[in-house]
Queue: 4 jobs
Job 1
Amino acid sequence: MKLRSAAYATAFFATVIPVFAQQPASVPKPKSQKEVQALQKVQAAAQQNNPDAEVQAINEVLEQFQDTEYKNMLLTMAMDAEARKGDYEQTIVYGERAVQADPTNIQAYDTLAQDIAQHTRDTDLDKDKSLQKVKDYANKALDLLKNAATAPAGIPAEQWPDVKKDMTAQAHEALGMAAVVEKKYPEAITNLKTASEEGSKPNPVTYARLSQAYNGAKQYDNAIATADKVLATADAPAAAKQFAQQQKDMATKLKGGAATTPAPAAPATSTTPTPSAPGPVQPAK
């Protein structure tokens, strides 16, 4: 359930650092003109959707300005950029750095839980360790979300209610994926159903995964009905539709009908909106 969006980034660019004199003390500020210029390089790379340049510019800021007030934001951005590149290992590296720098970073916990769950297989030698991380990160995100009355830095206040719903759904989806790997199908069904209900709008990837869990629990009618929801969604990703069709075929076959499609790997999922580059930066006055 990836929630990164151009609208979110645009709002963030416009609101994070307009005029320092009018900003509360909690809003990060650059301490020098050199830091402004370094942050502007991050901003430019992010606006050009160039994740390699974005990560490089972020690292330059973190190395040259070790006391930057943007550290938490920049680490979260680097995690997001690595995820967009499809670099799983570096996504985890930056995600773990982000939660070490800020133990209340809900976005990082959500991303870590989802990405680790997505990449863990039953045959992995470190499966148990990985699944425990999924549970720890997802439950930490859920605990923080329960008490998160206001939006984290970088998320516009008017978007927070929907983003909060989607982050909650994402954490439950990660727990559901972990339970599928463990073959704890009733637990998987509970979490994936919660994820499908908690999000701001229906997510076909979640429904496709729920169909898989129903098959594991031998609830074939539910598997077929859930897969049909995905297949009936016009804008569902092609991978989600393919996975849902294969789950439907499997359920039909196991019920005694005719089906020929083999079970695939689950479709790729997605991650919560993360802070994009800081908005137009100006030196502190």
Job 2
Amino acid sequence: MGAVHGVYLKYVGLSAISFAGYHMVMGNIGPMDPLPASDRMLLATSGSESSIMPLLRLGTATVLSYSTLLNGVIAVLFKLRKGMSLIGKDKKEGTIPLWSYLLFFPFHIPTYAYTYIHTKNGTMKPYSKDAKPNEAVAKVPVPVASEVLPGWWVGGCYAYQLNKQWAGIIDLTVEFPEKCRSNTLRYLCLPTWDGVPCSPEQLEKAAQFCIDARVEWARFKEKGAVEGDTPDILIHCAHGRGRSTTVMCAALVKMGLFANYEEALEKGIKPGRPVCKLNKMMRTNLAEWQRIYIDGKKGN
């Protein structure tokens, strides 16, 4: 099963679990007695201790029904590749407003929980060009970000834990605020749903951003305003596996380091971060980007 389908099913699953939970709390299924009509319930139990439990059940059922609707809508928007602005992320500063957390808490809470657990417990097989098929290799933790080539980093939303100074950051998340914003000279936010890649036009914008960020860093370096010998570019999504890999492929090809995105993936990225991969949609967009912006400009 591809990564896109897996992420889509995550939203569908949240909606389905919420739907089942709603019916259990209402007593339509499971061991609980059916909840009476709200007006009769409140009249029958008002002024007594027995009113607490029905009201708690009613409140829980309301939250679960909202979660069913919200995550169902997000699943539809995901399939349509639309609605990335729904969450309200500020593209300039990378912040998510308080109203979004309050209004969309059935989306934010499980997203934060899942990403935290996945980041803390994710493992991968170390890359080895001499590894044999089915050879048993001890797995190692997946870093919050990996330097796949000197100055080129692929990572997830916890990359801020590295506490580095960046020449440029490309943030591809809809669902998380940018916590490295104050540690970078340049910032580009291209919010996309988890598993959904940038369009060819966005890939070109991101690749050019990387070039411009490195040029700007060099100017600051001449003035003594930055330290280090290499401008560090961070491209991150939530987990540092798919969306960020897609953009990194385009950036490395645009820089002339590799001839095509397949070579950039296999030779430039996966040796440094073996968990990186591309789904069908990502490969399609990269192929189209390369056809238009790389192959289409050869000889001009």
Job 3
Amino acid sequence: MTGKVFPLVLSYNGRRHLEDIVQAGRKKTAPYSLRQTLEMIPISVRNLREPLNIILEESAKVADLMRDKSFEEFSCDPATYEQVVSCIQRIDEAAHGIPTIVRVKYALLPWKEIAALKAEFMAADAHLRPRVVWKISTEALPRIRPLVASLIEEIEK
């Protein structure tokens, strides 16, 4: 072997990867904890307030529609069923509009559960959908509603 030197040609990603390797060799310390970093990130209150209010309003509509109804009454009333399903769909859309940084900062809310409401009843068989919608509207939404209300109050402070 002769002592030929070949130039190292790297793509942009390769250069970034090489820089990361070099940086990893140096001692790096994070100046802030994750909590401090999250507190420093500005969150647009106006953009956040809208989807949270939609979640709160639609869950209130579902609570009003389901008040004093048994499962048999609910399953025999197609108009109420369709209204509840449309409310759940709007809650799902609003939950997907909340930025990830907010989901991380306010991790006490069950964001995955809120975002999966629509998928839960869409995945159910047609004969089981009323039971799934009943479960969502009587168990999941009443549990989520006070948490969203307290989050709105905290944001507006």
Job 4
Amino acid sequence: MSPRKSLAMVLTAPRRIEPRDLPIPDITDDTALLRIEACGICGSDYEQYEGVLRTPTPVVPGHEPLGIIEAIGDGAARRWGVDLGDRVAVETMLSCRFCSRCLSGRYHLCEKRRIYSYIPLSEKPGLWGAYSEYMFLDPNSIVHKMDPSLPPEIAVIFNPLGAGFRWAVEVPQTKPGDTVLILGPGQRGLASVLACRQAGADTIIVTGLAADAAKLAIAREFGADHTIDVENEDTTERVLRSPMVAEPMSSSTSRRMQSSRSPSRWAMFVPAARSCWPV
């Protein structure tokens, strides 16, 4: 029998978060209750905490949840293909499923989309985020069954790994033989290295700051061919005068992407890219 309350961390104002016991709702035919094992921390979590995103409060943050199905309605079990006790990862977006964008497969751009962790307590049942013992699963949730043998701290990185494949392979259509420039060795930048290596990219270049030395080392371990410290190296010269670029590259044989919001990384990206590819 599921408990009647869930301990949750509630963001009540910018930079103010407090523990609360929130009631656990009854589960209907098309909903479920998730017992949280772990939740990834996104860059937007920090921005939400700081008040930059101006999301409504009070609210339970956390939108990269991994957990166990604690209770589920028969309709939800059939639709999602999961059952009581299954481990699942939950996607961030709640789409309507019926607008033109949803029907074309671009559900992440749904005209009526909502986002877990941005829905306030005032919208029942309130357990819309994963900084909690339990989380409510809306009928429009998208869940993915996960290998129960994986340690939670490994399984929970499904979101940045998925972003790496989305941003670095799917969107730019990276294919075997391509040269890829990844700006920033953050978690999604490193995931992009893994994705590009799996996609068969010929050369992978990762840039970072001096403070990123350890992360750049991880990038090389994950398969990056070259890393560049943009604070201490001339990126354009390094790219053009090293074996990493054996011949001029065209837009059809190369891919450019970024995995950082750092202005300093963007400042070096444009001239470096313009030197090698049409921009």
